[in-house]
Specification:
With 295 residues, the chain is α+β, with helices and mostly antiparallel strands. It has 2 domains: 3-124, lpxc deacetylase, domain 1 (Ribosomal Protein S5, domain 2); 127-294, lpxc deacetylase, domain 2 (lpxc deacetylase, domain 1, 2-Layer Sandwich), CATH 3.30.1700. Helix content is 24%, strand content 35%. The chain is built from 7 helices and 19 strands. It has helices spanning 76-84, 107-116, 174-181, 193-198, 229-242, 260-271, 282-294; strands at 3-7, 11-16, 23-30, 37-41, 47-50, 56-58, 64-67, 70-72, 90-94, 118-124, 126-130, 134-138, 141-146, 151-159, 164-171, 187-189, 211-213, 249-256, 277-281. Strands 11, 12, 13, 14, 15, 18 and 19 form a 7-stranded mixed β-sheet that branches. Helix 1 (76-84) packs across helix 2 (107-116), helix 1 packs across helix 5 and helix 5 packs parallel to helix 6. The relative contact order is 0.20.
Length: 295
């Protein structure tokens, strides 16, 4: 994609927050070129919080952003959908502290964006291209990123039975995200429910917005949307956290049992060292690829 984008028309959705349980409304609106993705707390005089790694606040069971004490929680599904569908600039009006969970996946957001349409600006899109391999490791978990001319993911997960080990690899494009990742829902285990609620979490969770497993399998009446739905959802989460880089990524991300905290650590590691990446336009990238083929 050569030029920056926004949406053609506003779209909106309503629901509850997964962890807070509070009712919330969002409205996604077009924004000028070079705006990025900016949340506006309409219940707090439209207080702005940019979707940026600089504002990452909490990354335990969801990714939260905070600026001057104002919070936006559980941003990853919406950001993953915006990022993967190639939307560079929007305002997200939100009237409470948590993005609505909707059905627990990115699919409702993808459908909203498809309804909104896409508008291209004349400003050239600038990509963040990884120049050298880096990795972050902790307690047997690891996330790495390698140079690549596209945005690729390899995601490996390992959960207790009945989920087990799962893996996937794909190049992230709007079409592949919409058909292969967006439908995958957030998930958890029945025996963790009481502990999580005691921690003030999942107050808005239900079988309508999350997959819940016991030792036999999913409790949801319709079962899973794919045998490896859990791994696909972790890939969706990962993309949402990478969106906090603020620019479309060119690199191959390899996540091995990683979660929100490790995703955030990778983003912070990249942005703390300008020698790790370069900012490049589509035309510059295409010229390099052409030159490499000729030589």
């Amino acid at each position: 994609m050569r030029f920056e984008t926004t949406i053609q028309r506003p779209v909106e959705a309503s629901g509850v927050g997964l962890h807070s349980g509070v009712p919330v409304n969002i409205r996604i609106l077009p924004a000028p070129a070079s705006t990025g993705i900016v949340f506006l707390r309409t219940d707090l005089d439209r207080f702005p919080i940019a979707a940026s790694w600089r504002h990452v606040a909490r990354v335990s069971y969801a990714t939260s952003l905070m600026r001057q004490g104002v919070l936006i929680s559980t941003t990853e599904h919406l950001l993953s959908s915006l990022y993967s569908m190639g939307i560079d600039n929007v305002y997200v009006e939100i009237d409470n502290l948590e993005v609505p969970i909707l059905d627990g996946s990115g699919l409702p957001f993808v459908r909203l964006l498809q309804d909104a349409g896409i508008r291209h600006y004349r400003r050239k899109r600038r990509y963040l291209r990884i120049r050298r391999p880096i990795s972050v490791e902790d307690k047997g978990k690891r996330i790495s990123i390698l140079p690549d001319e596209a945005f690729r993911l390899t995601c490996d997960t390992d959960y207790p039975a009945p989920v087990g080990r799962q893996s996937l690899e794909l190049e992230v494009t709007p079409q592949r995200f919409a058909t292969e990742l967006a439908f995958a829902r957030t998930f958890g285990w029945e025996n963790d429910l009481n502990q999580m609620r005691d921690m003030g979490l999942i107050r808005g969770a239900s079988l309508e917005n999350a997959v819940c497993f016991n030792s036999e399998g999913p409790l949801n009446p319709g079962g899973l949307r794919a045998p490896d739905e859990c791994c696909r959802h972790k890939a969706l989460d990962l993309i949402g956290d990478l969106a906090l880089l603020g620019r479309p990524l060119l690199g191959h991300v390899i996540a091995e049992r990683a979660g929100h905290a490790m995703h955030a650590a990778l983003v912070a590691r990249i942005m703390s060292d300008p020698t790790i990446y370069e900012i490049i336009t589509f035309d510059q990238l295409a010229a390099r690829v052409t030159q490499a083929l000729v030589s």
